[in-house]
């Protein structure tokens, strides 16, 4: 009986210690400043989710895209654009790491945009842009936006109807 009690106490201690280690790792990497934006369904596929930008202590940004409704072994390209999500001519600001359909997640560390402009948390908050996740990088799937949404300043823009138009990306 005592051995069972000791084993239980030991397992409980290990679980508690591992949870606090995760919290400590989180506290050592991040400043506590973060913002989350919704990514809305952009096609007939029932895919939606969020993108979260978290400021790291080295002042870089960690962008985490999380989608519901993805499956299989596919990878889905994701990227940030300048301008509102309804603008079909919006230039790409930054490619994000591909999203795994199996996990529905993508993680990207950001320090600057494609044009070499430094990009941190304060820049994110004043950025007028959007995030889009596509079905594929090439072929017909390139023009299919699975999910997308405005970020930064452009979250304040909305249509009178409350609906958001998601434009297909400009061909490069």
TrEMBL record:
It comes from the Bacteria. GO terms for biological process: superoxide metabolic process. GO terms for molecular function: metal ion binding. SUPFAM superfamilies: Cu,Zn superoxide dismutase-like (SSF49329). InterPro entries: SOD-like_Cu/Zn_dom_sf. Belongs to the Cu-Zn superoxide dismutase family. This is CHRD domain-containing protein. It comes from Fulvivirga marina.
